[in-house]
Amino acid sequence: MLDVGNVTKLIGGMTILSDVSLSVGKNEIVGVVGPNGAGKTTLFNIITGISRPTRGAVSFDGEDITGLPPERICRKGIAKTFQIAHSFPGLTARDSVMVGAIFGSDEPMTIRDAKELSAETLGFVGFPGEKMDTLVRNLNVVELKRVQLARALASKPRLLLFDELMTGLTPAESNDSVELVKKIRAQGISILMIEHVMSVIMGVSDRVIVLDHGEKIADGHPYEVINDQRVIDTYLGDVGVF
Ligand SMILES: Nc1ncnc2c1ncn2[C@@H]1O[C@H](COP(=O)(O)OP(=O)(O)OP(=O)(O)O)[C@@H](O)[C@H]1O
Ligand SMILES: [Mg+2]
User: Which of 75-84, 194-203, 210-219, 223-232 reaches the highest mean pLDDT?
Assistant: First the structure.
């Protein structure tokens, strides 16, 4: 479904990504891990058109989407949430999700349908019903993450990219989010997710990719990857999880 081919990104003479290739298949959940500064967010920005690769290509369903603007890529069916949850502070939660429903999808939609879809999607992600009309600036971080997720879902993506969906959540909240990720996949949506919490990655991913200093150093079944000596040396030893 998604193919990233030999992507290199140079910024100011520094190599941020070096010849990274990866793929995501239909209905797959692929985890992306790696130390801080490894290039994970940069990779997501390239896939979603926020940034252009210096070399290499991105294709989606066999179509070259390299360098297309983010709104076109979103309408083709790739949505993302951001590492630092932000939204439209002056809009209500529901209106913020409507932006995704109306502008993120190729399907034309009436305001009424978008309103309905937004409420339904906020419910699906576990956003508190009584806060639908609360301004985004008054939401807490967990609620804000839910709004972001609902907005991405409302654009009816076929591939969803999560950049640290669980960071800042309590273990109980993370568990809820893991269930939610599984529920989203059950709807036929493929997922590529950056996550630092290894137990989450291990519990939910079909495949795990490890980035280090802009290079892909592993790509395989979660248990293969955590037993890979290079991964242990460069990353797992570092976070001290295993
Ligand atoms: N626009 C930019 N200008 C200069 N350097 C940048 C830019 N964007 C990213 N970098 C650098 O590229 C490297 C990779 O950054 P990136 O944000 O992709 O890492 P990451 O793997 O997402 O890290 P984290 O786990 O901390 O989120 C870092 O060293 C970062 O400082
Ligand atoms: Mg990042």
Answer: 210-219
